[in-house]
Amino acid sequence: MDYEIVIGLEVHLQLNTKSKVFCGCSTDFGSAPNTQVCPVCLGFPGSLPVLNRRALELGAKVSIALNCQIAEKIRFDRKNYFYPDLPKGYQISQFDQPLAQHGKLSIIVGNSRGRSLQKIVDKTEKKIRIRRVHLEEDTGKLFHQKDSSLIDFNRCGIPLLEIVSEPDMNSPEEAYLYLTALKSILEYLDVSDCNMEEASLRCDANISLRKKADKKLGTKTEIKNMNSFKGVKAALEYETKRQMGLLEDGKRIIQETRLYNTEKGVTEPMRSKEEAHDYRYFPEPDLAPFNFEKSFLKSIEKNMPELPEHKKNRFIKDYQLSGYDAGIIVSDKNTADYFEKCASLYSNPKTIANWLIGDVFAYMKANNVSIKDLNLKESYLSGMLRMIDSGVITGKVAKTLLIEIIQTGKDPGKLIKEKGLEQISDVKLLEAATDQVIAENPKSAEDFKNGKDNAIMFLVGKVMQKTKGRADPNKVNEILRNKLKGDA
Amino acid sequence: MLNTLTAHELINLLSKGDILPIDICNSIINKIEKQEKSLNALAHFDKEKALERCKNLKESVNKGGLWGIPIFIKDNISVKDELTTCSSKILKGFKPPYNATVIEKLIDIGAVLMGKTNMDEFAFGSSTETSCYGPTRNPWDLERIPGGSSGGSAAAVAGDEAIFSLGSDTGGSIRQPASLSGVVGLKPTYGRVSRYGLIAFASSLDQIGPITKDVEDAAILLKAISGRDEMDSTSADIPVSDYVSNIKKGIKGLKIGIPKEYFIEGVDKEVKGSIKLAIEELEKLGAVCEDTSLPHTEYAVSVYYLVATAEASSNLARFDGVQYGMRSENITSIIDMYKKTRKEGFGDEAKRRIILGTFALSSGYYDAYYSKALKVRTLIKIDFDRAFEKFDAIVTPTSPTAAFKIGEKISDPLTMYLSDIFTISANLAGIPGISIPCGFTKNNLPIGLQILGKPFDEETILRIAWNYEQNTEWHKRKPGS
Prior knowledge:
- The complex is a heterodimer of chains A (488) and B (481).
- Helix content of chain A is 40%, strand content 20%.
- With 488 residues, chain A is an alpha+beta fold.
- The radius of gyration of chain A is 30 Å and the shape is elongated.
- The termini of chain A are far apart.
- Chain B starts with 6 loop residues before the first helix and ends in an 11-residue tail after the last helix.
- Chain B has an eleven-stranded mixed sheet.
- Chain B has a domain at 2-252 and 459-476: Amidase signature (AS) domain (Amidase signature (AS) enzymes).
- Chain B is α/β, with parallel strands linked by helices and 481 residues long.
- The chains are: A alpha+beta (488), B alpha/beta (481).
- The interface between A and B is large, with 29 and 45 residues.
């Protein structure tokens, strides 16, 4: 039977403010336990929260970037439950009046059609609706030991932004694309470290299946405990199979929270009796509601950075990049910045894009470095490209030169001189090399003479090999043709 | 007998150099040693520490403030490294790592912290009987309660163990004990005084305020603790006026409303009589008193016991045995720790209010109870807004009866709750109120007059109170005399 997968995601984002959301404690990651605490974030009796405006500002930035409607009135609520990492016995959050609602985020999905070998992939834009964005405080962290548990409250009170999507994703792949697109925006906004391993970004997924014709949503499960985007995708893939298996066997799905077991690659029911929580939300009386000042909001809007979607369109228009190339380059802000810097130094942006997406990305992937940490100055890359254009080096030499530049951090001009990599354009030298190659490959020479034009490429390749890639391939081609035609 | 004087009298003597702070301190200690056993007004008092603080007073502190004047603090206001337990077993041994803002302010102007006063557990009560330290007794009749929840603060002042004290008022907890103990008690406008460091009962209702021997002291102490505090976002950035000089203007022409809902059946005849006489006195002083109506008054107690308990149920969730205070022994799991700690740590009234508040906030009941209560709360506030369009102040009895006997109402919560019937509305509306002595029953028990004012207009109610006091002798009467 054909099933439709329905997925909604809840993302918890630690905002990178300097101090916590309701007190002045530092938010630095990795300090000794319980060193970044005060009576307020420890929930000591008599202490009171005071809102960090910066957290609100960052939350508003995200809301604007996600095309949300921002609330006129800012109000907080208490979410009441008992847990040792929650020192007040309630979390200050937002319930029925979140910071922002009704947003959307576009992802580019590929729809394949046709048979496997001649598969055509259509790239289309899909809008994922954002239900709500709200601000809340993080909890502490528990460390379970054999007979006891320890609590680190450093994380307690770090501002969290919860971004809840509508159940608009229809495959684990779409969920992955949504997270990637969201992360890209968040990085552009510079509001969070977006690091799933350090838990600065956390994601819970709701997933259900329904028959294609059904209007009603199926029973959902909530999946937690994924520590990477790929993990989210894998967990959802597993859960899809699990639910589908149950449905096909005529069994029912139980609404429950399940934890993803990364090692086994499966989801397992959470062994907790505390399922149906009654959080007894009510307005937080310690934080008086206030109106979002229009001027404050305007200044946030004014200072919004260019977002990936806009940048992509601009790159297509201003640099004549293909949609595909532009999409890849803007998906990471640092790469986009790198590209633009190069484009200001070198006149053919398309060539920059090719090198960036080709050799530079390949190096980064092979060596597991990010563009930020890559030892390749924009001026070196663009300088190298100029030297290809002016015939100082060949494109082939440039490929190895690029690696040399990255590894040594040296100026390409210097490296070319040191290693003698200049292109050979001296006709006499090239003629000597071609003569040698013709002599060594009589069959190919003969083939060409007999009208096999392709054979010339083999001979050019041989000359290039002999000159370690330094020969000007166009000139070699010309010389070879002249020589072989002359013989005929 | 320096302990029997008011703060402004002592400030005068200190400034003339007639006495030293240590003299006042010794006089207080003397009285405490003689009387405290029978009064039980104090939750924590360490004579040596009090003396040490007095000796360590810095000469440099501005002597124009409260330099050298001893003060007692209700046990729910945080004092750094000093026991602050809300008279609850669950906070046994708890010493806050910081000072409440009001404490910082008092220390800054040279006041000498003497100790903590007894109270109803977490301020849940109107008699100071729910304290884990046992009930405080009324200095006017040791068989009777002093009122509550700031009963210790009121009894200490009434019994001359304190010059003045700080209390907190969530539904009448300053004014009602002031009334029943024959002293002056003022609940400021919500937001007038920082709540930072006040262990919350109901965050949207709580205010710290002075309990004093006369109105001038109330003005002095209010001035000392008022003002915007960056640590409390519900504190208001509204200027604090110079109460002491401004209250001494006359009250001729001031319009005073007398709401009929405060003179209903159940109000003691003697109380009614005293209030009537007080109103006549105010008219003699030139005030224009007129009948008025606050039509939603009858709902105040119901609204209060939903809003206050709902907030309390959440505010008291932090007492879970994890970080501070009491933790039950022999626990087997985290849930077991919560259950046993809270079962053993909270008294009956605290448990009753936590259960009531939890219920009011529960899904399925929220709309019918908590949400509805908030709506009626708004109506009660509107009642006052309307009345204050016409009147400068409203005058009522503080409490329907004089002090009742220990044990008389403790087993009947509903009857107990009704003793706050006239004070609760001011907290729901956020307006200021003061209670001043206005007479005595035949049994020589004090009766209090409540004056309610416009938001942030403490000046007017203090002014009416001061003028009344200047023309009466009630405040001069001492217990046992």
